């Protein structure tokens, strides 16, 4: 990073990020906050089609204007973190991610500061769509960076300043950095994704946990069968008719990670070609749908007590190291996919926690 870039990044990191809840995103998409940006708004008594068109255009311009201000700040904070994190910043994959963020940061600040016309908004939408696609591989690339760090520590090629050996299981600062990074990344993708999909909202008002869980079951079964030749059955029970506002893709990711772990544990514990006990998924809701609980239980032997604190670490995995070696050459252009290994990337469960947190304040 050049001195001028570093100075510019410092200017933007001095500005705080603006949080936006799922409810705010939904209300903005419905045009309920147009009065905060535009003095003149479409007349409700005008022709229905003209009213809808004008309202939609204003909503898109409003959201685009917010993202034009907000995204450079968020990218700058992540660039600063990636540049200043001990050890992790030295990994080649992490430097690759930093360059992605730098490129996107520059492209954004080169755009006019205000979105004042439909044409401005269309051009901005094309830009952020390109950024959204470009950053789709960041999750896997950062996982590769964590693998590179693990390997450097195992090889003892990376040490503390006093030449003492590094124990990555106790690197709390590293775990906090990765949590913060992934929370921010998920928030950025929700903001951009919701903007790009305003006419078909990324946030679904009637998300069906049952349908999402079933899709995750199908995907996890495919992955487990590919690795072991078979997979345990999964039984869904409880509120199968329940719906609630959520991001279906995020719920799918969370359930896929849990079910992958359950299936792998069940097969490993009982042995290949055994008569596997079924995995059970229970869907429940709290009073007036304020809380939705999805419970996954299996008979896969449980987690060793010695590993309980480590399962939330991005630097820990119980998978065969050979899988991790193969992952270094893994070129996946999506956040998560059935083409990825059943286990071994090292970020399955750890990313679930910030993914749940991000839905409180994006």
Describe this structure in words.
The chain has 362 residues and is mainly α. It has a three-stranded mixed β-sheet with strand order 2-4-5. The chain is 54% helix and 7% strand. Mean pLDDT is 81; it is low at 44-52 and 323-331. The protein has eleven helices and five strands, in the order αααααααβαββαββαα. It has helices spanning 3-13, 22-29, 48-84, 92-109, 118-134, 138-154, 172-196, 209-228, 248-270, 321-328, 348-358, and strands at 204-207, 234-238, 244-246, 279-285, 292-297. Helix 5 packs across helix 7. The two termini are 28 Å apart. A hairpin with a 6-residue loop joins strand 4 (279-285) and strand 5 (292-297).
The Cα radius of gyration reads 23 Å
Profile the largest sheet.
Answer: 3 strands, mixed
- Look at the helices and sheets and give the structural class: mainly alpha
The averaged pLDDT comes out at 81
Query: Uncertain runs with pLDDT below 50, 5 residues or more?
Result: 44-52, 323-331
Strands, count: 5
């Amino acid at each position: 990073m050049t001195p001028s870039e570093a100075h510019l990044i410092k200017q933007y990191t001095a500005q705080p990020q603006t949080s936006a809840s799922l409810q705010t995103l939904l209300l903005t998409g419905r045009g309920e906050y147009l009065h905060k940006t535009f003095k003149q708004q479409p007349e409700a008594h005008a022709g229905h089609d003209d009213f809808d068109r004008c309202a939609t255009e204003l909503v898109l311009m409003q959201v685009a204007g917010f993202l034009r201000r907000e995204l450079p700040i968020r990218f700058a904070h992540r660039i600063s973190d990636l540049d200043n994190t001990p050890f992790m910043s030295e990994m080649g994959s992490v430097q690759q991610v930093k360059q992605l963020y730098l490129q996107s940061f520059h492209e954004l600040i080169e755009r006019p500061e205000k979105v004042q016309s439909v044409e401005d908004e269309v051009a901005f939408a094309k830009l952020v769509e390109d950024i959204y696609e470009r950053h789709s591989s960041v999750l896997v690339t950062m996982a590769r960076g964590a693998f590179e760090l693990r390997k450097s520590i195992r090889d003892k090629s990376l040490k503390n300043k006093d030449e003492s050996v590094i124990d990555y299981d106790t690197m709390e600062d590293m775990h906090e950095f990765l949590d913060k990074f992934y929370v921010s990344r998920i928030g950025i993708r929700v903001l951009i994704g919701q903007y790009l999909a305003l006419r078909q909202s990324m946030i679904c008002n009637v998300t069906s946990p049952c349908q999402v869980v079933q899709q995750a079951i199908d995907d996890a079964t495919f992955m487990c069968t590919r690795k072991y030749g078979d997979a345990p059955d999964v039984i869904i029970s409880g509120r199968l008719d329940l719906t609630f506002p959520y991001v279906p893709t995020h719920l799918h990711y969370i359930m896929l990670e849990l079910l992958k772990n359950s299936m792998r544990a069940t097969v490993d514990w009982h042995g290949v070609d055994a008569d596997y006990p079924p995995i059970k998924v229970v869907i429940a809701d709290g009073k007036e749908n304020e809380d939705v609980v999805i419970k996954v239980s299996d008979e896969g032997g449980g987690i060793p007590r010695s590993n309980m604190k480590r399962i939330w670490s991005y630097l820990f995995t119980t998978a065969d190291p050979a899988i991790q070696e193969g992952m270094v050459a893994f070129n996946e252009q999506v956040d998560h996919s059935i083409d990825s290994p059943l286990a071994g990337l090292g970020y399955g469960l750890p990313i679930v926690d910030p993914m749940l947190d991000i839905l409180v304040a994006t």
